[in-house]
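Quick log. Single chain, no ligands specified.
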Amino acid sequence: MTEKYPPASIPPSEWDEPVAPLSADEDQGTADVVKDQAADLGHGTVQAGKRAVAVAQEQASGVAAEAGRQGRDLLRQAQEELGQQAAHGQRRLAGELLALSDELNSMADGPGQGGVAVGLARQAAARTRDAGQWLDDRRPAQVVGDVQSFARRRPGVFLALAVGAGLVAGRFTRGLTTGDDEAGIGGTP
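-> predicted structure:
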């Protein structure tokens, strides 16, 4: 069986003494103290809530600002990467055009060549070299601006050139894949 002992903080002489009831004034004073403490607790809770809301708003604002900054950085990096890729492709195309021009000139300068074919080869070489130089001398944004300007001024010519370039590119690609297939690279030997 368990025995109950009074708390150690109460001296043994007061263990059996009855607790005197509070008087009306003491009871009213205690109620006022409890009310004041409850009011202070409520006020403190409201203040803590307001502080928590302010901190949450500040942190949300910081997160939004950081997300915006990271988004701008990502966009800038993507633009730089695309610009570098466009510049690389443009330089490569310019080099290919200049090499094609040199090949056309060497064909036209070959021994025993004469006539209309030589004149056409020289004209093609000159125009190809001009196009290669034009591409080599410009940045990608300038090329896009010049092409857009030309397309606005002469839409019919632009469309005809685009169709012609598409046909040439298609023939060139088909020739490359056919050559690969015949060599056993692209298909079965």
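The radius of gyration is 45 Å.
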